[in-house]
Amino acid sequence: MPVFWESVLAIFAAIGFYSLLHVVYEIIYARLLRMHGSAELTLYGDGSEAASEQLLRIALRMRKQYLPGLSITFVEIGCGEENNVAKHMAARNDIMYLE
């Protein structure tokens, strides 16, 4: 086999070995972080806007998938109208709501 093809195979083998080690490291480290880690997320917005609802839904999904210990706080910077979606979501999903 020519030297060129041996070099190409060696490069692919090195990349594959590195990828395997990286995946194993990510699985182990992410699992340890998820089990023992905690974080705090503070969101600011107008609770009656659709963008705030979307932010809260994304934050809830991240808490469910990656960090069960995530504490979410929503700070109301709007007028706090009667159809405040963020306030209702906070009451249902263990989110701290501050006016």
How would you explain this protein's 3D organization?
Helix content is 59%, strand content 15%. The model has no long low-confidence stretch (mean pLDDT 85). Strands 1-2-3 form a three-stranded parallel β-sheet, covered by helices on one side. The chain has 99 residues and is α/β, with parallel strands linked by helices. It is built from three helices and three strands, in the order H-E-H-E-H-E. Helix 2 (50-65) links the parallel strand 1 and strand 2.
How helix-rich are the residues, as a percent range?
A: 55-70%
> Which class best fits the helix and strand makeup?
alpha/beta
Characterize the biggest β-sheet.
3 strands, parallel
What would you report as the Rg, rounded to the nearest angstrom? Answer: 23 Å
Q: Which blocks of ≥5 consecutive residues have pLDDT under 50?
A: none
Order of strands, main sheet, comes to: 1-2-3
Order of SSEs, N→C?
HEHEHE
Q: How many beta-strand segments?
A: 3
Q: What is the count of DSSP helices, taking H or I runs of 4+ residues?
A: 3
N- and C-termini, Cα separation: 72 Å
Strand content: 15-25%
Mean pLDDT: 85
Shape: elongated
Quick description:
59% of the residues lie in helices and 15% in strands. The chain contains 3 helices and 3 strands.
Write the layout of secondary structure elements.
Elements: H1 3-36, E1 40-45, H2 50-65, E2 71-76, H3 85-92, E3 96-98
Parallel strand pairs: 1-2, 2-3
List the main descriptive attributes of the protein structure presented here.
99 residues, alpha/beta, 3 helices, 59% helix, elongated
